[in-house]
Amino acid sequence: MSVNVDAGRASQAPIPPPRSSPRRSSGLGFLSWLDLKAAPYLLISPYFLLFLVFGIFPLGFTLWYSLFKYDLTGTEEWTGLGNYTALLSDGAFWNAVVNTVGMFLIATVPQILLALLLANALNKRIRGRLLVRMGVLLPLVTSVVAVAVVFTQLYGRDWGLINWILGLFGADPIDWKAQRIPSWIAISTMIDWRWTGYNSIIFLAGMQTIPKDLYEAASIDGASRRRQFWQITVPMLRPTMIFVVLNSTIGGLTLFSEPTTFFGGNVHGGTNSQFQTVSMFIVEQGFREFDYGYASGAAWLLFLMILIGSLVNFLLVRRIGGNK
Amino acid sequence: MTTLTVGDRRRAPTGRKRSDMWSATPWTKIVLVVTIVISAFPIYWMIVIASRTNKEATDIPPPFLPGGNLGENIRRVLANEDAHYLTGLTNSLIIAATVTVSVVLISTFAGFAFARLRFRGGKLLLLLVLITMMVPLQQMGIVPLYRVMVNLEWIGTLKAVILPYLLNGFGVFLMTQYTEQAVPGELVEAARVDGASTLRIWWNVILPAVRPGMAVLGINTFMLTWNDFMWPLIALTPDNPTVQVAINSLNAKFGTDYVLVFSGTAMSILPLILVFVLFGRQIIGGLMEGAVKA
After folding, report:
1. Are B119 and A41 in contact (CB under 8 A)?
2. Domain harbouring A161, CATH code
3. Which residue in chain B has the smallest CA separation from A155?
4. pLDDT tens, A158-215?
């Protein structure tokens, strides 16, 4: 934003001195050249070196591996797009895709609505503001594994607190791990518990940039608070909403730790893989079956999923905000 | 530039009537109280179970108050030969500290260059950083990274975990934003006219001004690294784990020994709770500023 102005100015000031001072020895000239022209590159080089080694290189090799067939002995054989066609007709892969998308939807939709509601409450005049915000953000501090361990126990079939509470209302105990939809719900609540508060703080930050006079004008016009919320707050939050939704999309589609811990650290995702996600599928194929090619192909398909998911959600959020 | 001053609203002298729409209704209070109870409950529950016996943990109705067995349970966690809990704790500390210091330094360097120095391709390279923030590198690069680490015989060593974590596009993005906001371009120019070298400007002008940003990034990086699970699970062996992998081992082998697993879990989040209590204000401030600028 402010880069242009400042950088433009900077370019005029410092450049003349080296040129207009021929008295300097050539050694000094080299040094000042080094300082002015090379220093920026030196400063960003650690990052881009890492980027090359741990970003570009693994991405490229994942693509390369995905074109080979590996077996347990480690021999590799060119298969072209074979892994991809096999993946696309593999029921286990599609199962993982359905689980991932299903849990993403069950977790994200209520999460964003709750976060909006919560942010609206946080945006009021309240006492002990910092403490309240810290309370809301507390779950973010706990590790995903810790969350999953606690929730797995809470969702226990025989001694779990949740079944006990349901029992008080006369419901039969639910075997949360064994069935598909209950397991999705259990895992989704772990995600929501951890991220709703975080997202509400982000929404709150966005809400505080909305000019107050918009609301004042609306109340003079007689708009109810509810109406103000949906007609002013939500549309004005569009940029923040895009940030939150894209973040949730990437996080949700790469889900790994919660479902893995839910099944005792096993990436199979339940006896019938009823909650195995694509990330878990990748790890299972790559590091349990040692089929590097298949796992790499799945990784690229996951990337494709994320791109499509991000695009769809981006367009969706833009439309919601575009009402007004 | 958006400074978040909600407090001002309260003190604003302009008519009470106007600010009434910002006053907390009973509904607001209910939402907040319920949220905080839900937020805190699993952590409280962790402590309740961690301080009980296994028999009590499976009682019906369940116990709702902490018991007196915490010390004994912690002793059992530390003595457990399959979990290598203390090793895990130390490893996590080493990994998180190394990664935090390195990422903050690397990001401060790059942030300075992108925000306040002009160089060919700078904008393009910054755009590249932003784009790659969208790529889930952990999932995408896991197979080649693993094979490289196998070939180097680094599997099971801490450097196999530390090195990939050093790549942190978010850090560069954050420090670029922060430097732009905290260091006026004129200040850098003035130092340049005075004959200061780039490195000297970084040390004398940039570093003192961006310290709060470094703190936010540092806390953030520490928490993320401490909590990460997928890559350590693959790159490390159970006898030299991170704390998350150690908990996973406990959970996998002694899943029904609730008090054991819960004690290990409770101890693992203790350092983070401490960081959070000490730096809560900065963490929240940093989150909110970052969100508005993104």
Report:
1. yes
2. 1.10.3720.10
3. B42
4. 888 899 999 999 888 899 999 999 999 999 999 999 999 999 999 998 898 888 888 8
Report the C-alpha gap between A36 and B252 in whole angstroms. Answer: 56
CA distance A121 to A196: 13
180-239 of A, contacting B, C-beta below 8 A = 193, 197-198, 201-202, 204-206, 208-209, 215-216, 219, 225
A306-309 own/partner pairs: CB under 8 Å, 24+ apart: A306/A249, A306/A250, A306/A253, A306/A254, A306/B134, A306/B136, A309/A104, A309/A249, A309/A253
Average per-residue pLDDT for chain A: 86
| DSSP class per residue in A129-189 | HHHHHHHHHHHHHS-HHHHHHHHHHHT-TTT-HHHHHHHHTTPPPP-TTTSHHHHHHHHHH
Pairwise CA distance, residues B157 & B91, whole Å:
10
Shared-domain flag, residues A227 and A270? yes
Q: Quote the number of domains for chain A.
A: 2
pLDDT digit string, tens, across residues B49-66: 999 888 888 777 788 888
**Contact between A306 and A254 (Cβ < 8 Å):** yes
Q: Name the residue in chain B with its Cα closest to that of A293.
A: B143
Q: CA nearest A294 in B: which residue?
A: B143
Contact A13 B193 (CB under 8 A): yes
| Residue of A43, A59, A118 with shortest CB distance to B113 | A43
This complex has an ipTM of: 0.83
- The reply to whether residue B144 touches residue A62, judged by beta carbons under 8 angstroms, is yes
State the best of A12, A54, A56 to mutate against chain B, taking most chain B CBs within 10 Å.
A54
Identify all chain A residues contacting B36, using CB atoms and an 8 Å cutoff: 132, 135-136
- Residue (of B206, B217, B196) closest to B116 by Cα position: B206
Do residues A9 and A117 both lie within one domain?
Answer: no
Residue with tokens 């991932």: A100
For B86, B268, B284, the CA distances from B92, given in Å and listed in that order, are 10, 10, 24
CB contact under 8 A, B110 and A303: no
Domain ranges of chain B: 7-77, 81-253
Query: By three-state DSSP, how is residue A85 classified?
Result: helix
Within 8 A of A52 by CB-CB distance, chain B residues are none
**Which chain A residues are Cβ-neighbours of B49 within 8 angstroms?**
153
The answer to whether the peptide bond before residue B61 is cis (omega within 30 degrees of 0) is: yes
B81-253 belongs to CATH 1.10.3720.10:
yes
Across the interface, whether the CB atoms of B141 and A55 are under 8 A apart is answered yes
The verdict on A104 and A166 lying in the same domain is: yes
| A132 shares a domain with A52 | no
- Residue A10 is part of which domain span? 3-65
Q: Compute the residue count for chain B.
A: 294
Question: pLDDT tens per residue, chain A (324 residues)?
Answer: 333 333 333 444 444 444 444 444 455 677 777 787 889 999 999 999 999 999 889 999 999 999 998 877 778 889 889 999 999 999 999 999 999 999 999 999 999 999 999 999 999 888 888 999 999 999 988 888 888 899 998 998 888 889 999 999 988 889 999 999 999 999 999 999 999 999 999 999 889 888 888 888 888 888 888 888 888 888 888 888 888 898 899 999 999 999 999 998 899 999 999 999 999 999 999 988 888 999 999 999 999 999 999 999 989 888 875 554
